[in-house]
Amino acid sequence: MGQQKSGEPRSLRTSVKGPLMFSAFWAVLAFVATLIFASGGSAKTPRFDLALTAAGIAFIVILVVLAMLSMGHKPNAEHLGKGSGVNLSSRSGGHGGHPSQPGTGAGPADTNSGGTPRDDIR
Hints:
Layout: H1 17-39, H2 48-71, H3 90-93
Helix pairs in contact: 1-2
């Protein structure tokens, strides 16, 4: 909290405008849906009491869920972002952390009749 300077806009994670707008959107959607479906047709009077109740419940529940998600957010440690990642190619790096050396260790099971390494052995 002490990292923010006065006059600068807040970051997306610490700003309250995004979660409020998201909750308001779903509250309006719940209001309209409840107003349409709770009335039972256009010949009957609209149920504004149920629509307002649904909008209020949707607004509060979504706002609480977003608050819990933002409080539970923890950034990854810096050392996790460094490194080369996982070696997905079995041809370039060998297995088990031992680099493969061409020409050594290739017995009859690793080569076909022409002496080249077999591609079908996994």
